[in-house]
Structure formats: structure tokens, C-alpha cells
TrEMBL record, chains A, B:
<feature type="binding site">
    <location>
        <position position="55"/>
    </location>
    <ligand>
        <name>substrate</name>
    </ligand>
</feature>
<feature type="binding site">
    <location>
        <position position="48"/>
    </location>
    <ligand>
        <name>Mg(2+) 1</name>
    </ligand>
</feature>
<dbReference type="GO" id="GO:0009229">
    <property type="term" value="P:thiamine diphosphate biosynthetic process"/>
</dbReference>
<dbReference type="InterPro" id="IPR006283">
    <property type="entry name" value="ThiL-like"/>
</dbReference>
<feature type="binding site">
    <location>
        <position position="77"/>
    </location>
    <ligand>
        <name>Mg(2+) 2</name>
    </ligand>
</feature>
<dbReference type="GO" id="GO:0009228">
    <property type="term" value="P:thiamine biosynthetic process"/>
</dbReference>
<dbReference type="InterPro" id="IPR016188">
    <property type="entry name" value="PurM-like_N"/>
</dbReference>
<feature type="domain" description="PurM-like N-terminal">
    <location>
        <begin position="30"/>
        <end position="140"/>
    </location>
</feature>
<feature type="binding site">
    <location>
        <position position="214"/>
    </location>
    <ligand>
        <name>ATP</name>
    </ligand>
</feature>
<dbReference type="GO" id="GO:0005524">
    <property type="term" value="F:ATP binding"/>
</dbReference>
<feature type="binding site">
    <location>
        <position position="215"/>
    </location>
    <ligand>
        <name>Mg(2+) 5</name>
    </ligand>
</feature>
<feature type="binding site">
    <location>
        <position position="32"/>
    </location>
    <ligand>
        <name>Mg(2+) 3</name>
    </ligand>
</feature>
<keyword id="KW-0547">Nucleotide-binding</keyword>
<feature type="binding site">
    <location>
        <position position="47"/>
    </location>
    <ligand>
        <name>Mg(2+) 1</name>
    </ligand>
</feature>
<feature type="binding site">
    <location>
        <position position="48"/>
    </location>
    <ligand>
        <name>Mg(2+) 2</name>
    </ligand>
</feature>
<dbReference type="InterPro" id="IPR036921">
    <property type="entry name" value="PurM-like_N_sf"/>
</dbReference>
<keyword id="KW-0784">Thiamine biosynthesis</keyword>
Length: 312, 312
């Protein structure tokens, strides 16, 4: 059955029936707006949009995969402020010939990914469009902490990482060359595994800056370096190339460090910590902050490309 | 200059430079997420999406007009809960050949409309897309009041309206027949004039239910009737046909009451009040609630069409 047959309200009813609720959902879907708890009198809010053909392909990812990824991209932004996600709102633009099941499974993926952190889909909007588009807004709770900004890195700080880099980019390359394996990489592209809890943990431990790695480690650390008016050096040896990535890189003729250092979409969190901080489990040191500008790798400019610009 | 030339980050810089700030903006654009004040430990949140060709046309509306309308559609949803809007987040999907000025003026319109109620654009995302799409999320503050839902209307209540109906629908019809006047109607379509303050006022006065009229009065009151398990009767005589609307209707061969009762996009607020409530300025009685189901006009079923389904 296509969406043209169910109509807007029929589809909304079917989607809402699939959604789980969350502790912060004071009023969920069905009214003009949702009401979400904001216990410390502030709410953290971020929006990310996924466009078919640009951020996903229906022949590469299932509807549930796209839902998981759309949610993860947003929830990671909330975690990167040191906050705990509470709610998602979803604007869904769909071609009228889209099967209803696709929209339902997308919503299931969004809801399931949100439930991992105790958040829920509380509202949304829907329209027909020639281009399948999913815009998600995530809300979150700072639990009384100050938000961890991009601008607080200090010379001498340690740069640390929670989560994987390069896996999603490698999976994307694999898929774009017509392969479906290795599964590790393809699955990483389809559904990022984000260390959500690492964000609040870093905030509690005194992280001086933090960012969600969505466009590539070097590019995103470039935002931290610029906002903090510091230089950042990455230690290439801190990045191990997993066997399956090495094999794929070799087969495809790619330098795996381009994936690891410049590949986006894994949504690892990068943070800076004062020197001597005992890093919590899940965080590992990958570089250091110094006086200066820009991002280097082993103290040299990086030549392998820096990441993703959605208009180039 | 096109967006392909400025690139994603160049365009974001230009847009952010145009934004005004708001009292609730604790942290505005530029980090992974924004931080917005939520003084009463709750936040009201709503999302609406506008798609080119479906919700607007660039030859009918300026970029600033589209920005005003996208903001108004969302801010009205917040007002319809009885809340005061605090912030907007904007996901913007644009063709790469879109002139940069268009995106800048759109953002200016969003920011200016938000500023009318003291709210501000605090964040967003941007992507290229073949289809120009604007998804806006609005946040708001209930100031300690309970949200006014669709489900609280009681038999005996008065149905009241704040703001215009039918003007935007008439403007749309005028434009779709190739005319550019009357200005009153065309301007109403381009930039709705929403009585934002009427929402919180109605909440303070004990409104039992409230809704933003976005799809047409009869259709949207149908949601109130269904959620409240009541019937609603609208008094046709409560709707005056303005001269310019009467002339346009006559010239175009349209029944103006179809615009007034079934036309959307003016974002009037409809609310129900207990019998005997002295309606505040800006609100006028247009009908009554009774035991039963559905929405009637002068106690009869309405035959003129009920409103807008985005998939039909």
C-alpha cells in the first residue's frame, strides 16, 4: 500500500502506533505540540536533516537503518554537549508512491534508537515531496551541568575519542563500489554505534571541549581548534586499522587512514581534557592541544582530504 | 552567487550573521546543539515542514515571505498550547544553484517573525537537495500553566476564534488563477498574521481546548471534536465576508464560505471556553459545543469540502 492510499492522517496514525514513550514525554504526539520535561530549566536542542541520494540510499540501507542513523546523528549532537537526550521530533517528506511500510519501519528505527538512551519520538510533521527527506530535532537535559562547548580547549589538554572513526566511511566506499561486505564496515555505515553515555561522562570529568564527529575527525577538530583558538595535533599511531578495514582498503586501493582521520558518519565523540585527567572507560587519548592554529597529524599538515561539505 | 560557490560553511556563516538573538537563547548557533531556557522545567515543541511546489512557490512568495510563513506555522502551534515561543531550529535543504541571497532572506524572514514573539533562531542544519525544503522546530514556555489540549472541550462550551480565516486560502486561489491582487488576500497567503498572544491569553482565561487552524477551520475543529468526544456546531453568520474577498470570490466563481470555513494557512487559533466566559479582546464566538460527534455548520453537515490533506 502506498502513502497516497492511506493519506496523511492514516499514515500518522499508523506511525504513532509504533512509537515507544519516554520518561521525559509529558505529552506525546497528537496535539499541536508536544511537552517535554526540562528538569534543570534548560533544554539542549539540535537539528539534522537526511536527504535521499545525499545521506542515504534505499538500496543500501533499510528503512529501519535510516531511522537509526537519523536518530543517532541527532542524539550524538546532544551527547556532545554533555547532555542526555530526552525527545525527538521528526519532519518526514515522502514521495506519494512510497510504501507505507517504509515510513512505518523508518519510524520504528527512530523510536528504537531513541529508546536506547531513554528518549522518545514526541512529535513531527509529514508532507509529500519528490525528495525523501527526514529532518530530526533532538532535545536533551544537561542535568545541572554546564554545556561542553567547542571553544574551551586549552594548550596542554589531551584530545580523546569515544567510539569508532572511519568505519562508516569505509562502509560507504565499499557500498559505492558495489560490494556488500565486509559486514563490519557496511553495518557501521547503516547504523552508527554511538557512545552516547560518553558525552555526559566526559562533562562530569571536566572535559574542556567536545564535538560530535559527523563530517570527519580532522574537519570537526578543526572547528574545535578555531573556536578555542588553539592548535590540535593528532597522533596517527593512536589509530589502529582493524583487519577487515585493512583488507577492504587494500582491495579498493584506499589509504585506510583517510577513512579513520577524515571519514564521517560514525558519530564518535571527541573531547579535550585537562592534562593528567584519568580518562574514563570508553575514552582513549589520540592527540594533544597546543598553542597555534589548525589541526596537524604527527605535527605535519594532513594531505589526505579533510572531510565532507554538503555542497561540494 | 550560488550556494555551490559559498559552500555549506560559508552559507551558514552568512546566515548566522543575520540572526537576531532572544531572551531564552542561552547558547545560539555554532556548537553541536543550542541551549534554550525552559523556566518552568518543561518545554513545548512542535515541527512543521514546508516543501517547494507543495507549500510555497518561489514565483508567488519572496524568500522573506517563505521565512515568515515557515516561522508562523510553527509559532502558532506553540501559541495553540497556551505557550509563549522561545526558539526556532531550522533544517534547510536547498538546490545547489539556489542564489545565496534567497537563503539569507529566508533566514531573515524566519528570524524577524520569531522576534515578534521574543523568540530567536538558535540552530539548524543545511543540506543540498533537489527539492527546496524548510523544516522548522519551535520551542516554547508554558509559564507554569497546563498545556491547553485538543481533548478538553465540553458540551455547552463556546467555540471562539482569534485571527482571520479564509484569507490565505483566497490569496492562494487568486495566485493560482494568475492574479496578483487583491493585495489583502495575496499578502495574507504570503505572510499569515497570527494572533500569537491570544494563545496564552486563552489559557489564562480557562480555555478548555485549543488548536491552530492550519488545514481549515472545519477539519481542525474536527480534531477537537474527535479528541474531546463532542460535537461542534459553527454559526455561519459569525463569519463576515470582507468586501475584497466577496469581490474576488464573485470574479473567480467561488463560494467565499469555502475559504472562510475550510481554507487553511491563516493560522487563526480556535478555542473552547466554558459557557459565560467573557471572551478577551481578539477572540470572538463562532459556535458551540454539544453532545454528539463531528462538526456541523448551522446544525447541518457541511457540503463544501473540509480542508487539506497533504497526500491527496
Amino acid at each position: 500500500m502506498s502513502i497516497a492510499e492511506t493519506g496523511e492522517f492514516g499514515l500518522i496514525t499508523r506511525i504513532v502506533a509504533r512509537l515507544e514513550t519516554g520518561a521525559a514525554s509529558l505529552l506525546g504526539p497528537g496535539d499541536d505540540a508536544a511537552v517535554v520535561a526540562a528538569p534543570d530549566r534548560r533544554v539542549v536542542a539540535s537539528t539534522d536533516v537526511l536527504v535521499e541520494g545525499r545521506h542515504f540510499r534505499r538500496d543500501w540501507s533499510s528503512a529501519a537503518d535510516v531511522g537509526h542513523r537519523a536518530a543517532a546523528a541527532n542524539l550524538a549532537d546532544i551527547a556532545a554537549m554533555g547532555a542526555v537526550p530526552t525527545a525527538l521530533l521528526v519532519a518526514l517528506c515522502v514521495p506519494t508512491d512510497l510504501p507505507v511500510e517504509w515510513a512505518e519501519e523508518l519510524s520504528g528505527g527512530l523510536s528504537t534508537e531513541a529508546a536506547r538512551v531513554g528518549a522518545a519520538v514526541v512529535g513531527g510533521d509529514m508532507s509529500s515531496s519528490p525528495t525523501l527527506t527526514i529532518a530530526v530535532t533532538a532535545l536533551g537535559d544537561l542535568a545541572g551541568r554546564e554545556p561542553v562547548l567547542r571553544s574551551g580547549a586549552q594548550p596542554g589538554d589531551v584530545v580523546a575519542l569515544a567510539g569508532r572513526t572511519g568505519h562508516a566511511a569505509a562502509g560507504y566506499t565499499v557500498l559505492s563500489r558495489g560490494f556488500r561486505t565486509p559486514k563490519l564496515l557496511v553495518e557501521a555505515y547503516r547504523r552508527p554505534e554511538v557512545e552516547y553515555a560518553a558525552g555526559p561522562t566526559a562533562a562530569r570529568l571536566g572535559a574542556t571541549s567536545m564535538i560530535d564527529i559527523s563530517d570527519g575527525l580532522l574537519q570537526d577538530l578543526g572547528h574545535v581548534a578555531a573556536a578555542s583558538v588553539v592548535g590540535i595535533d593528532i597522533d596517527r599511531a593512536a589509530f589502529e586499522v582493524p583487519d577487515q578495514m585493512r583488507d577492504a582498503a587494500s582491495a579498493l586501493g584506499v589509504d585506510p587512514y583517510v577513512w579513520l582521520l577524515a571519514g564521517g558518519d560514525d558519530h564518535a565523540l571527541a573531547a579535550t581534557f585537562p592534562p593528567g585527567t584519568q580518562l574514563p572507560p570508553g575514552w582513549r587519548a589520540v592527540g594533544s592541544v597546543h598553542e597555534g592554529t589548525g589541526v596537524t597529524v604527527d605535527r605535519r599538515p594532513w594531505q589526505g582530504g579533510t572531510g565532507w561539505d554538503h555542497f561540494r
